[in-house]
Every structure is written in C-alpha cells, then in structure tokens.
Amino acid sequence: MEQKTLDETWQDILGDLSSKVPKPSIKTWFNQVKPLAKVNDTLKLTVPNKIVKFWLEQKFNSFILSSTKSIFNEVKSIEYIIEDNTQSPKTRSTKNFSLFKKISIFEVNPQTNINPKYRFDNFVVGGNNELAFAAAQGISQDIGAKYNPLFIHGSVGLGKTHLIQAIGNEVLKKHNNAKKIKYTTSEQFTNGLINALKNQSIDDFKSKFRDIDVLIIDDVQFFSGKVKSQEELFHTFNVLYDEGKQIIFSSDRPPVVIPDIEDRLKSRFSGGLVVDIIIPDFETRVAILRSKSQERGVLIDNKILDIIAQKITRNIRELEGALNLILFKIKDVNKLTEDKINELLKDYLQVYYRNVTPKKIVKTITEFYSLKEDDMVKKTRKKEVIRPRQIAMYLLRDLGKMSYTSIGEFFNNRDHTTIIYSCEKIEKEVIHNLDLTQEIEIIKSKILHS
Ligand code: ADP
Ligand code: MG
Q1: Rounded to two decimals, what is the model's pTM?
Q2: How far is the CA of 430 from the centre of ligand 2 (A)?
Q3: 436 Cβ inside 6 Å of ligand 1
Q4: Which residue from 1, 147, 344, 427 lies 20 to 30 Å from 181 (Cα-Cα)?
Q5: pLDDT per residue as tens digits for the range 14-44
Q6: How far is CA 441 from CA 327, 343, 426, in A?
Q7: CATH architecture, range 120-277
Q8: Using a 6 Å cutoff on CB, does residue 156 contact ligand 1?
Q9: Which of 254, 187, 277, 276 lies closest to 225 in space, CA to CA?
Q10: 128 CB less than 6 Å from ligand 1?
C-alpha cells in the first residue's frame, strides 16, 4: 500500500477512534502520531517520544487496535516506534516540552493566589477536621469578627491548604469578589520581602499585604529563623488586626513549638483560635476517595474504595496519589482484586527508598526526557531543561528525602530558595494536573523498579 493511502487510512482510523476516546485525549496524544507501514498483521506507528509511546501502549492500545481492525481486519497488533529524529535536538526537545504546556482547568488567580479548586463543597468533613472546618466556615460568614487570627495546624497532606483556600473562595463568592483577599505561603512572603529590599520597593510590598480584607498565610513554620520576615509579618499583622481585618495562618505544628520564632509573634499566632487537623479515620478516608473519584467522573465500588482506604492511612495527599495511580493503570477499576491493588500500591505500602540514590533519580529523568546529564546540572536556562530539572529537584526531595540545601549543592551550588521554588511549583501542580501526576508516577516507577 502506498504511503499516501496509508495516511488517508490512518485518518479513517482516527475518525473511528474519536468515537471511543475523548477528544482532548486524541488531540494530546495522537497529534504527532503517524502511520509508518503495515507489515503483515502489524500496523507500525511512529510516535514523537517515550512519553507518548508509553501512554499509547498503556492506555489506548486496545482502542487503537479495535479501530484499526475495523479498517484492516487482518491487523493483530500495533507497534509504536519512536521517531528517528533527524531534526536538531532543540526542536526535538521543544516538541517534548509542548506536552507540559497544557493548562489546568483550575486557574489560580494571580491577584489573590486563590485556586478555585479548593472549596468547602468538595472538602470532606470528618471527626479529624470538623473543628477546623467549622471555624473556617464561621470566618467566611463573618470576616474579622469571630476568630482572629485563625491558626490551623496539622502535618503534611491533611487538608490545611485546601481549607484555608476554601475560606478565600467562599468570601469571594459571598461578597461577589468585592473583598480583597490574599493567599501567600511564608516562603513567598519571605522572597517577596527580600526582593522588595533589593529593589527598594518596600512600600509596595507593605501595601500589598496591608491593603487587604483577608490575609491567608500558609506554612508559617518556615518563618522559623527568618528575623526580617518575622518583623515585617508582626507589623503587618498589627495593622490588619487593628483594622478588624481577618488573618488566617497554617502550620505543620502548633505555634508554641515552632522553633526560632519571636515570642511576640508566637503570641499573635495563638491569640485567636488554634485548631488542629489530624489523620482521618477509615470512614472519612473512604468518603474522601469517593468524592475524589466522583470529581474525576469515575464510579468505583465501595468494596474497592474500602481496600484502598485500608492500605493508605498516612495522609490525604497519598490517598489521592494512590487513587490517581490506580485510575491511570487500570481500565476497569471495579474488576480489581485486593492482590492487584496491593501490587499496584506496593510503592506506597513499603519503605521503598532504599535503592534510590540522587544519581539514579537524575539519570532516570535525563533518560526519560532525552537530555544530557550535564545539562541538568549546569546553570543553563534552556527552556527544555527547566521543567525536567524542576521535576528532578522535586523527586530528590520526595523520593530522595534530601534537604533543600543539599539538593542545591547537587545542582552546582544553587541557592536553596531556588530549590524550594521548584519543589513547590511541582508540588502545587501535581495536585490538580493529572497528566503531570501520571508522568511523575511513570518516572518514579522507573526509578524504583529499575
Ligand atoms: P496540607 O496543606 O495540609 O499539606 P492539602 O490541603 O494540600 O494538605 O491537601 C492535600 C490534598 O488532599 C489536596 O488535594 C486536598 O484537596 C486533599 N484533601 C485534604 N483534605 C481533604 C478533605 N477533607 N476533603 C477532600 N480533599 C481533601
Ligand atoms: Mg499545604
């Protein structure tokens, strides 16, 4: 068959596919797929890179095969061949890069830093968080008047950010966007202050945080030891408080046990209502899994949810990660057995970090994105390197359990604030970008199992 006819036939196959696979998926994953040849009972397709190959094989192979069969009855298998790229490396990597540019449905408002994804209506309330939830709701109905400040503490992945962001969304809704809200992390606050001092724009900085109705500061434990930031925060707090404006803090521990925080600030932190969020019990974990799967438009048997909730107990971020992983790997979730879930979640269930070295992490990522190891470490700002490098920093932290400082040293003595920025950026994105989550899962499993 001539190449041209094959191209046309491929268009027919794509036409058939689009009745089985959602349009956005076709656009994302099939855009650069081309028919190469039909050899006996195999259709050979070229794909632009490893990511697409992996995706097509894992997720779409049976659809592609059945659509192909509807046209070439005799075809029994599909072969995916990574395009032998003769273009310059630059163009090639830019192509890879375009995969990351997909925009999430939930856009964070740059003015308020509030993400519409975090709301009260999708926050599951259980015994572990009901006080914090009630306080958060109370505040959003009556800002500045009830509990000021509100201080929510609890360990990582338990819903602090979700809840304090939800207050922001609720206030914006209730007042038709008329209230000025600002969400910031302590690190953003600190970096903003450093920049303001450097650029002599301290007045702008001050007014940015003082001309506000609700100020939300996440993870204040990172103010520990930062004398200048603490001082600035103290004054900001006083101005807002005196004007009856609402202030909300979160931290991974109660105010009294945050080290290296001035006493006067600690007493401000504790001066309103201090509530905690603890690990959710089994029923709450199941309810969260149900809510998250419904959000993703999947209906999962209670039996299956029960098993997952029994296995994953430490925190909700892990619970969500486990669910994502399962949804990604399995087509018909309801046919899962306990053994299969155990197998899928092996990484989550064991201490599996033993064989993970920083070198292995970086090597796996460079291979995955077809980069040179040198490029990752060197201080180049090449666009196609930036994202994989951020992922590397994130995974060195997440899997490698390295400190920000030692990650900085690993990357040619970069400043630890750069590392924090990168890690946070990926951390935030994985929460609502399912594709990125899945990509990182692929990389992780390569690191852990190779
Ligand atoms: P923290 O800030 O405490 O580290 P996050 O607020 O980032 O935790 O929560 C981690 C993930 O778990 C987020 O995706 C969040 O939406 C989800 N989550 C946490 N608690 C709940 C809950 N009660 N109901 C629904 N989702 C939750
Ligand atoms: Mg948080």
Answers
A1: 0.62
A2: 13
A3: no
A4: 427
A5: 998 888 777 767 777 788 899 988 888 899 9
A6: 12, 15, 13
A7: 3-Layer(aba) Sandwich (3.40)
A8: yes
A9: 187
A10: no
